[in-house]
Amino acid sequence: MKARVKWVEQMSFLGETESGHAVLMDGAPAAGGRNLGPRPMEMLLLGAGGCTSFDVILILKKKRQDVHDCEVQIEAERAETEPKVFTKIHMHFVVTGRNLASDAVARAIELSATKYCSASIMLGATAAMTHDFEIVEAP
């Protein structure tokens, strides 16, 4: 896997993936940025959220659960001094489907957090990771 990050101007950087996708990252105005895109640390959270959501959906489908949607709401705290690593990350899953089994959802999240989601597992090396979930019945 390869990626490239190129400085655009001021505090804006363009990230390009080997798969041909691009995302603009920018710094906060106080740091010389213009707020044109997400901060790099926000991208880490988005990456972990995407990785774990992918796992949860895949696992639930393999368990033949009638899942329609999965959203993960992420809250994180960072250290106050440099390096300002994440110290706490909480992921709240909102899983929508028909007759979803609570134990199946809990197990899918656990498997993602402990076995499959590389991004979450890496972040968990420096941050206390917690998870919870709610199930919404699809109409």
UniProtKB/TrEMBL annotation:
<protein>
    <submittedName>
        <fullName>OsmC family protein</fullName>
    </submittedName>
</protein>
<dbReference type="InterPro" id="IPR003718">
    <property type="entry name" value="OsmC/Ohr_fam"/>
</dbReference>
<dbReference type="Pfam" id="PF02566">
    <property type="entry name" value="OsmC"/>
</dbReference>
<dbReference type="InterPro" id="IPR036102">
    <property type="entry name" value="OsmC/Ohrsf"/>
</dbReference>
<dbReference type="InterPro" id="IPR015946">
    <property type="entry name" value="KH_dom-like_a/b"/>
</dbReference>
